[in-house]
Here is the input.
Amino acid sequence: MTTMTYREAVRSALREALRNDERVFLMGEDVGRYGGAFACSRGLVEEFGPERIRDTPLSESAFVGAGIGAAIGGMRPIVEVMTVNFSLLALDQIVNNAATLRHMSGGQVSIPIILRMATGAGRQLAAQHSHSFEAWYAHVPGLTVLAPATSQDARGMLLAALDEPDPVIIFEHAMLYPQEGEVDEQAPPADIRRAAVRRAGGDLSLITYGGSLGKTLLAALELAKLGIESDVVDLRVLRPLDTDTILESVSKTHRAAIVDEGWRTGSLAAEVSAQLMERAFYELDAPVARVCSAEVPIPYAKHLEDAALPQIATIVRAGRELCAKNE
Amino acid sequence: MTTMTYREAVRSALREALRNDERVFLMGEDVGRYGGAFACSRGLVEEFGPERIRDTPLSESAFVGAGIGAAIGGMRPIVEVMTVNFSLLALDQIVNNAATLRHMSGGQVSIPIILRMATGAGRQLAAQHSHSFEAWYAHVPGLTVLAPATSQDARGMLLAALDEPDPVIIFEHAMLYPQEGEVDEQAPPADIRRAAVRRAGGDLSLITYGGSLGKTLLAALELAKLGIESDVVDLRVLRPLDTDTILESVSKTHRAAIVDEGWRTGSLAAEVSAQLMERAFYELDAPVARVCSAEVPIPYAKHLEDAALPQIATIVRAGRELCAKNE
Amino acid sequence: MAEEKTSNLSALSHPSAKALLRQMLLIRRFEEKSAELYTVGKIHGFLHLYIGEEAVAVGAMQVLTADDEIVSTYREHGHAIARGIPPAGVMAEMFGKANGCSRGRGGSMHLFDIGRRFYGGNAIVGGGLPVAVGLALANKLQGRKRVTACFFGDGAVDEGEFHESLNLAALWKLPVLFVCENNLYSMGTGLERHQSQTDIQAKARAYAMSGEAVDGMDVLAVEAAVRRAVEDIRAGSGPFLLEARTYRYRAHSMYDPELYRDKAEVERWKRRCPIENFAAKLRQAGGLAEADWKELETSVAAQISEAVAAAEAGPWEPVEDLLKDVYTPATGSARGAAPCGDGPADAHDESVALEPRPSPLVKP
Amino acid sequence: MAEEKTSNLSALSHPSAKALLRQMLLIRRFEEKSAELYTVGKIHGFLHLYIGEEAVAVGAMQVLTADDEIVSTYREHGHAIARGIPPAGVMAEMFGKANGCSRGRGGSMHLFDIGRRFYGGNAIVGGGLPVAVGLALANKLQGRKRVTACFFGDGAVDEGEFHESLNLAALWKLPVLFVCENNLYSMGTGLERHQSQTDIQAKARAYAMSGEAVDGMDVLAVEAAVRRAVEDIRAGSGPFLLEARTYRYRAHSMYDPELYRDKAEVERWKRRCPIENFAAKLRQAGGLAEADWKELETSVAAQISEAVAAAEAGPWEPVEDLLKDVYTPATGSARGAAPCGDGPADAHDESVALEPRPSPLVKP
Ligand SMILES: Cc1ncc(C[n+]2csc(CCOP(=O)(O)OP(=O)(O)O)c2C)c(N)n1
Ligand SMILES: Cc1ncc(C[n+]2csc(CCOP(=O)(O)OP(=O)(O)O)c2C)c(N)n1
Ligand SMILES: [Mg+2]
Ligand SMILES: [Mg+2]
Here is the structure.
C-alpha cells in the first residue's frame, strides 16, 4: 500500500498501461509538454515520447473521432477530453460513432477507446466550466461509464477499462485530484461491474458517486452523531448501474437519499430513484430523496456556488427528514 | 376550426409570426428553396424572401450560435436544426451560451431564440437518425422545452414561444408532421406552462408527450375495453414540468405509467417517476411504471425498430400489470 | 477557381477499361433497381442515390488496394459496390435482412464490411472524417502502409469536422486521401449559397496540404488523379484533398421534390454522363462492340436479379436478438485480442489478403 | 508566412499617444494587482493574464465606436478595460461581489457590460465566434452600421467553430472583424504543434475573405490595421480576419508551471514589450517627460486602488437570490419589448449614446 493522490493514481495507471501494451497511447489537449491540465500526465511525454503522449489541437470533435478510428484500427487510445464541459463539442462523435458503430454494422467492429474527463464544480470556475453531465453519458447504450471516487479506483478502474472491448467514459471529479488515498499498486484491475458500500449502517442508504462521496461520508458521520447510521453506497459504475447492490442496501435500510452533483431535474439521481420506485417500492418506508444541484448555471461567487451544490449540511438535513418520516 | 396537418400548423404559425413581427426570421439548413427537410417552410421563401427565410451551410454550431447572437442583437430568430440528431453538434452553443449567458452576465441579456427540431424514431432511419434527446434538454436550467403533440399545439405553442424572452426548444416528433388535426387559427397563443389531460379516466394515469401521445391514447382505448379507464396526461412542457397536473391525476388514479420514446435509463420518464416518488409516494397503490425504448441504438429493420420503441401493446401490458397489482 | 484535371489517356489504352464500364453500369442499374424497390415498399428509410457520380467511386477504387481503408457517407452504394461488397449483401441490407452487410441493423446509410476495410456509411454529415483520421493514425503508429480514403460531399466541407480533421491529418502527416464529391448541392442548397469560397480544393492551403480538382464525370481522370495523390501519400507527404466535380442526377433522397434546381441544369449535366460518355469513347476507339454492351447489360442485370433474390430469400434477424451487438460479448481479456479489422474477415465469404490487391470487381 | 504590417506613424504624431500609453499601463498594472490578489485569496477560479498583449486590445478599441460590439474570451481584462468598463466593475467581479460587472456570477472569465456592447468573456474556446456572427447578422438585418469585433486566440483557430463562423460571415458578407490574438501558444502547445498552417491570416483565403497580419506588440500598427479593416467592413466588403502577432508574458493561468517554453524565449519577447517600447518612442520624440511617466504611474495606481477599494467594499449577492437571472422575469408580452442591448444602458453609470464615439478611456 502506498499513499498517493488521485492524480498520482491516474498517472500510475497510465504509466502501467503504456508500459504493458504498446497499442496504448494517450491523446488530448496539453497532455504532453504541459503535463496535462490537471497534471495527470506530467512526466509521461519524457518517458514515452510525443507519439504516445500526443498533444492535440483544440479540436474536440476531431481528436475524439480520431481516437475512435484509432481504436477501430487496433490501437488502445486513452483520450483525455480535459473536462466534461468541452466534451459537448465531441458528443456527436461519442454518441453517433463510438456508441453506435458496433450495433449499426451488425457487430463488425469493437471500439476499445477510453475517454477520460474531469467533471464537476467547486473551484469557482463559473457556469461554463462547472458542469456535471454524467447522467447524459449514462443514458447512452453502447457506452460504459465509470466514476472512480478514490485513489485506488482511479488507478484500478482505468486499468480495468483497458480490458473492455467497447468505449468507456471515465469521469474524474476535479476536486478529487489532490485528494490522497491508499493505493495497492499490485492489486489487479478493479471490478467495474459493482458498486461499493463504503460505510455500513442500518437506518438509511446514502447513494452517491464521484466527487460527492467525500461529502456524503462526512454527512454520514454527522448523522451518526444524531443516532442515524447510514449505508453509503458508492455507485462507481454509472452505466450499467449496479442496481443489485443498491437494492440490497435499501432492502436493509428501507430509506434512501441519492446525492448527485448534477442539476436535479433529469439527474442521474432521478434514474436511481425511478429504479427504486420500480424495484423496491414495497421495501420503502419513506419516499426516496434526492440531494442535487440547484437549477442554476453554477455561479462564480463562492457563497453562491456553495449554495448551488450538494453540501454536507443539505445531505444531513435530507437524512434527518427521511428518518423522521413514518417512524 | 380548420383541419390541417401538424406540418401545416407549424407553417401557419411561422407565417403568422413572420407577418406580425419583422424581427422574426427563420434560419436553418434547407429551410428556403428546398422548403424544409420536413416541408414545414415550403412556400415561405417566396413570400418572405431569402433574408428572412435563410438557408444556412451545414454548420450547426455556427448557425445556432448565430441565432443566439441575433437574438441578443434584437431579432427573434427561429432556428430550425432539422433534427435532434444534428443538434448534438450545436449543444455547446445551446448549453454554454443560450442557456447560460443571461445568468453569467448577471442578468444583462435575454436571448429570445426559438430552436425547432424534429425528434424521434419510427421511420426506419437507423441509429444515427432516430434519437430522442428531449430529456437532455429538459435537464438544462435556462431553457424552456416544449413538445407539441397536436396540430393545435404545433401552431399555438410556437406562437407562444415567440412571447418568451428566453431560449425555447421545440421538439416536433417526425411522425407527427403528416398527422391531421383541428386547428383554430383565431385562438390566442397556447398556454406553455401547463400539461393537458387528453382523456379522463379514474383507474390509471398514462403520462406521455410528443410522438407517444397517439399510441398512448390508442392504448387507453384498448385498456378501456378491458375495463381500465385511464387519464392520459400530455406533458406538453418538458421544462419546467407541470408537476401539479401530474399530481392531480395521480392523486385520483393512484397508479401511473410514463410512456417516453427515450432510452429507459436516464429518460425523462425517470424524472417524472422520481417526482412522483417525492411528491405522491403516499398516494401510490403501485410503483410507477415506465414504458420506454429498449437500450439499443435504434435498428433499421422494421421489426427490430418496432421492438425497440414503446408500442400500444407494451403500454397496454404495463397498464394491466399496474392495475393488477395490490388490488 | 482551380482548373480541373481531365484525363489525357485514351479510353482504350486502359488495361481494364471494360471492367470500369461494367462497375459503373452495375452501380447505376443497382440503384435504379433500388429506387424501384423503394417505391414498392421493399426498401425503407432514407435512400440516397449516387446516380451520375459513379465515375468517382469506380475511378478511386481502382487505385486503392485491399489493404487500404474506406470511410464513406450515407450516399455510399457506389463506394460499397466498387469496393467489392457483393451487391446481394447491400441489397439484403436495404431489405433489413440478416444477410445484409450490416445484418439489417444499418440500412442504406450504414453499409459496413470490415473484411474489406469498408468502415461504413455515416449519416452524420462530416461524421466520418475524424474516424478516417484515426484509422490513418493507427496505421501510422503501427507502421502499416495503408491509405485511408475518406469520401464526403461539398456540404460536409461546411462542418467544423472538416476543418478539424484536415488540420489534424496535415499536422500529423497522416496517410489520408480526402475525396470531396462536389456535386454542387448540399441537399437543396447550391454551393455558392453554402460556401463563401467555392473552389473547394483551394481550402487545402489553409492546412498546408496539397489539393487538386478533377473532372468527376471522367473515370479515367479520377483514377489518374487518385493514383497521383495516393502515390504522394504513400511516399510520406501527408494527406491530400481531392475535389471531384460531379453531379447528382436524382433527387437528394426519395423525399426531395427538387424545387431548388432547374431541369435544364440537370439535363446539361446528363449530357456528361460518366457511363454514356465512357462507353462512347470506347466505342469510338473500337473497344466496345454492340454485342459487348449487350453482354454487359445482361450480366449486370443477372447480377442484380441474383442480389434481389438473395435479399428476398434472406432471413430476418430474430426479434429476441434485438439487444445484440450493443456491447462486445465477453471473451476474457480484450488486451490480448487481435485488433479489430485485422482479424480474419468474418463478415462475408471472401477472405481478404493483407497484400495489396486490386478492387475485386475489376476483372482485367 | 505573410509579412506583418508594422506602423510607420511616429508615436508622437498620434493625437492621443499618451492616452494609449495610459490604457496599456492601466491594464498592465491592473493585472499585476489581480495576480497579487489571487495569491492572497481575494480572487479565485481561473485568472488568465493578458500581460504582454495590451497593444492589441488598446490599439483595436481606438477604432471601435461605442456603437460597435465586442465579443471576447476568458483572457479579456484588457479588452474590457480598453473598452471602458470601469476597473472597479471588473475587480469587483473577480471578487465575486454584486457590484461586479456581471454581479459576481461570472468572475474573471465572464466580464459583461451590455451598455458598452461588451458581450462577454467566453470560456469555451471558439464559443464566442458564432455569437459574434449572429450579432453582426442582427445588425445587417436591421440596417445598423455597427461592426462586431470578435477576439480569440490562435488555439481557437483549431476549433470547428472558427471554420463555420468565418464561412458564415463571409457567405453573408457580415460586418465582423475577427481578431486572432496569436500569442504562439494554445495553453502549452506551440503553434507549430497545433496547426499545420501557421500563417493564420492566410486561412482567410479559404473563405474568400480578406486577411492580414500585424505586429501585435505595436499599438500604432494595430490601430492602423484595425482602422483599415474596419473601413473595409463599413464599406460593405464583408468580414475581415486580422492576425495580431503577440506574446503572453505570464503563465497561461495561475495553475501553469510553464514547462513548455524556454525562459529565453520569454525574455526575447519581453524586449518587445508594447508598453516600454511605446514609452521609449514617445520619450525619444520628446513627448514623454519623466514627470509625465510618473504622473501616469501615479494616476493609474490611484485608479487601481480605487477599484480594489470598491471591490472590497462591494456587497455580496444575497444567497436567497441564487436562482435569480436564470430566466427573464415576466413583464407581459416580450414581443413588444425593446431588443436587448438597445434599451437604456442599465448595467452601469455611463449611458451609451448610439452615435459613434471614441472609446471612453481615450482622453485626447
Ligand atoms: C450533421 C448533419 N446535418 C444535417 C444532415 C441532413 N443532411 C443529410 S445529407 C445533407 C446534405 C449533404 O450534402 P453533401 O455533403 O454535399 O453530400 P451529398 O448529399 O450532396 O452527397 C444534409 C443537410 C445530416 N445528415 N447531418
Ligand atoms: C473548447 C475548449 N477546449 C479546451 C479549453 C481549455 N483551454 C482554455 S484556454 C486554452 C488555450 C486556448 O489558447 P488560445 O486560443 O491560443 O488563447 P490564449 O489562451 O493563448 O489567449 C485551452 C485549451 C476550453 N476552455 N475550451
Ligand atoms: Mg453535395
Ligand atoms: Mg494563444
